[in-house]
Design brief:
Layout lengths: L4 E3 L2 E2 L5 H11 L6 E8 L4 E8 L1 H18 L15 E8 L5 H19 L3 E5 L10 H5 L3 H7 L22 E5 L4 E7 L4 H11 L9 E8 L4 E8 L7 H14 L4 E7 L4 H11 L11 H10 L2
């Protein structure tokens, strides 16, 4: 079996189609790497690519995309609802078939060294690739974003990079690179424009404030829709299911007299997470994965 790894780089551009296409084309220029998904959000002003390939080729693909983003994105003229520290903001590596978490950590560290040396961008490592324990959590590294980091990186030891210059790249900022397991980026829109409600719900459900164990959440204003959003990362859907999160947000919203208008997945989601939600909401009795048509087809076609 070919060794495969996934990377989900986040770029601080979700509005200029020509820039987004150029970054995607750079990522897609490496043989053996596939762009499985591209999700661009104009309110967040952010694009997320889902890339899969052998580890060495995947590193090259991500580097080329980062190189292009560095040329085309200027954070001094960037605005958006999502916090960010860099033109390429976050780059996680996720082990898949034939690769381990150690392989993902190595990929993160090697890419980080290349970015620091060649692109002259400060690098911070997070999650399993973290060098400092206080940088395991992404939100701790990103904190208040580009502007805060620009002002403090040279004078505050807590903000000094793991690799690269002790000054942010003038236009491209810094980058946070790491290794982690599968994650579901999941957003829920509320039928209100009151940002205080979204922030209170986010505080109630996220792990860091005593909520659900594997949930990170923040409240975001989406002015183009006239709504607010609870934006989440679900870091272990086996332990905290998507439907559990949905139900808790719904219940918290109802306490404020607000309803859910819809939810969305950013990027890709494991089929198992949707199957779990189907079992729950449809009350499917003893439903098994081998009852899913597409999985059964893959199983039988793969055996031929």
């Amino acid at each position: 079996m070919q060794a495969l790894m996934e990377s989900v780089p986040n770029f601080s551009e979700g509005r200029r189609e020509d820039v987004i296409v150029a970054i995607e084309q750079a990522a897609n220029s490496v043989s053996g790497v596939r762009v499985l998904d591209r999700h661009s959000d104009t309110d967040h002003n952010r694009t997320v690519l889902t890339l899969v390939g052998p580890p060495n080729q995947l590193q090259e693909s991500v580097y080329r995309a980062m190189e292009r983003a560095t040329e085309l994105i200027d954070l001094r003229h960037h605005d958006g609802a999502h916090p960010r520290v860099g033109a390429t903001d976050v780059v996680p590596f996720i082990p898949l078939a034939g690769t381990t978490m150690d392989d993902a950590i190595n990929a993160a560290r090697q890419l980080g060294q290349r970015v620091a040396d060649k692109l002259k961008i400060p690098v911070y490592f997070y999650e399993e690739a973290a060098i400092r324990p206080d940088r395991q959590n992404l939100e701790q590294v990103r904190r208040k974003g580009f502007e805060e980091l620009r002002d403090r990186i040279q004078t505050d030891e807590d903000r000094s990079p793991d690799l690269g210059p002790y000054a942010i790249h003038e236009s491209a900022g810094a980058v946070i690179i790491g290794a982690r397991g599968p994650l579901i980026a999941y957003n829920i829109y509320l039928n209100t424009n009151d940002l205080r409600i979204a922030k209170r719900i986010a505080r109630a459900i996220r792990n860091s404030s005593g909520g659900l164990r594997y949930v990170k959440a923040m409240g975001i204003d989406i002015p183009d829709r006239g709504q607010v959003q609870v934006s989440m990362n679900l870091t272990n859907f086996h332990r905290t299911a998507v439907h559990t999160v949905f139900n808790l947000v719904r219940d918290e919203a109802q306490a404020y007299g607000v309803s859910i208008s819809e939810s969305e997945v950013v990027g890709l989601i494991p089929l198992a997470a949707l199957a779990d939600a189907g079992r729950y909401f449809l009350r499917l009795h003893e439903f098994k994965d081998d009852q899913i048509l597409e999985l059964k087809l893959l199983e039988n076609l793969g055996a031929e």
